[in-house]
Amino acid sequence: MTVFKPTEIFQHLRDGHTLVTGNSRLARVLSGQYSAWRMRQGDLQWKSPPIFSWNAWVDRLWERATLEGMVDSARAIPNQQQLTNLWEQVLAGSGHAGNLLRPQALAVQMRDTRRTAVEWNVDLAHPAWHGEPGDNHEAFRLWNIGFETLCKEKSWLPPEDRMALLTRACEKPGMRAERSIDLLGFDELNPAQSALLAALEGSGSQVRDVRIEPRAGIHGTWKADNHREELDRMARWVRLRYEEDPNTSIAVVVHDLAARRVEVESALR
């Protein structure tokens, strides 16, 4: 494990290393910080940094593997809406779900359930899935069989199924991958992710787990009587910390920011 040091990571990115983040928001934030860092270095132009969320990075790996003929590209990859539509078709033909008032809501749940099961290497063909006609797990088993059959008929490949195919492709000679991959923002890797990264390491890639070191300090809590007092106390706290160190970075978390943005900004001004 390596402690996150922005300058070191940005230097790696400039040298062609790849940074994979746990979500797209972190990737966007770091891309902006990298651009600011390059400007401070006096650079006038540079390539877009190779910073990707996990999903975007897998898309990139898949595209490279298909172009190099390392995986079968005869089946198309559906997006999230297309996946939902496929599940809706399965549910529409099911006697268990044919009369649902909101089939799309169940279709989304089935889509996400299957993705989680595949990523965590759950055997969807295991006998434990069998049950009585009214059991939820039996219904999911039958719906999943219908979904996989429909995907084969329509030449679709569920996105989560790519992980195992990419893992096997990385174990073959000739698969070209990044020489250095830094991982940032992952609380836990699921088995499918771990297997893919292990295969990449086996093919010659260097994979590092980068952690953001928590800032040490004194913590305390207090309760405000109303929103106005809460905002006033927050603004005074921010001003105190800023006066102590004008170069510090201060984050304010507001759970309902969309509704309170104007009054929060007013308090800070």
Blueprint (SSEs and pairs):
Blueprint lengths: L1 E2 L2 H9 L3 E4 L2 H17 L10 E3 H14 L12 H13 L10 H17 L16 H19 L7 H9 L9 E5 L6 H12 L3 E6 L15 H18 L12 H12 L1
Parallel strand pairs: 1-5, 2-3, 2-4, 4-5
Helix pairs in contact: 3-7, 4-5, 4-6, 7-8, 9-10
The major sheet is characterized as: 5 strands, parallel
Tell me, what's the shape?
globular
Q: What is the chain-wise order of helices and strands?
A: EHEHEHHHHHEHEHH
What portion of residues belong to β-strands?
Answer: 5-15%
- Average pLDDT rating: 89
Helix coverage percent:
40-55%
Cα-atom radius of gyration: 24 Å
Unreliable spans are none
Distance between the termini: 40 Å
Tell me what the structure shows.
By secondary structure, the chain is an alpha/beta fold. The protein is built from ten helices and five strands. Strands 1-5-4-2-3 form a five-stranded parallel β-sheet. Strand 4 (180-184), helix 8 and strand 5 form a beta-alpha-beta unit. The radius of gyration is 24 Å and the shape is globular.
Supply the key terms.
alpha/beta; 269 residues; 5-stranded parallel sheet; globular
Concise overview:
With 269 residues, the protein is α/β, with parallel strands linked by helices.
